[in-house]
Amino acid sequence: MKIGILEPGFAPDELRDKFKSYPKMLEKLLGDVDSSLEFETWTVLEDVFPASINEADGWVVMGSKHGVYENAPWMIRLQDFLREAVNAGQPVFGICFGHQILATALGGKVVKSDKGWGVGVHEYDVTAGNSDWLSGSASTIRINAFHQDQVVELPEGATVWASSDFCPYAGVQYGSNAASIQPHPEFMRPYEQALLESRLDLIPADVHKAAMESLETPISSLDFAKSLVAFMTRKRARDAA
């Protein structure tokens, strides 16, 4: 299966040489679960888009420092692309900014939250419900977060599969083939720590301190990667059955 990665943002310049890109982090995370997966990245931030939704079998939208409410031309084009892929029945998954722009594309609302920064390891309650791809998930997951913006209004028909007091709509699903998550399963501790250290001047001292301390908490990213691979590949598995 070929997964198309849509890249709407870059790691900070000072971290890029050591940690590379968010798509490379995702490739590592998912490739360790299923080595047969193929990947290709399109840097939509620079208005580089696939020629069509058929350039890949499914799509993952990554994180960005930008807010979806900026309504930059590439964001509008990205929303159109996501709607087309979702309506065609392709697997579509959003991470952080990807979570927010998928919600926006399908009729939800995103704002810069008055709750402030969500950084460090956050814990979320998981409600699998009818989401068979979450059947192997624990009832709570812990994943590195780094955001201020949040989805505050869901599109019609959307269901919540992960939530916390800080982020009630942390995991959302749209029908059978589109879903998303607010935190970053692709962020391992070394990168989250380096990103926190590089953003010390932007984050309130007490929030920053708590986030740094939270990094001692084991995360669920490797387990969640199995669920994400199940989500991306289940349509192909059903078609082959």
UniProtKB/TrEMBL annotation:
Please name the PROSITE patterns in this protein's record.
GATASE_TYPE_1
Q: Which Gene3D superfamilies match?
A: 3.40.50.880
**Assigned GO CC terms:** cytosol
Tell me the first and last residues of the signal peptide. none
* Source domain of life: Bacteria
Q: Which UniProt keywords apply?
A: Glutamine amidotransferase, Transferase
InterPro entries attached here?
A: ChyE-like (IPR044992), Class_I_gatase-like (IPR029062), GATASE (IPR017926)
Keyword check for Transferase, yes or no: yes
The entry lists its GO molecular-function terms as: transferase activity
Query: Glutamine amidotransferase domain: which residues?
Result: 17-196
Q: Which PANTHER family match?
A: GLUTAMINE AMIDOTRANSFERASE YLR126C-RELATED
Q: What is this protein called?
A: Glutamine amidotransferase
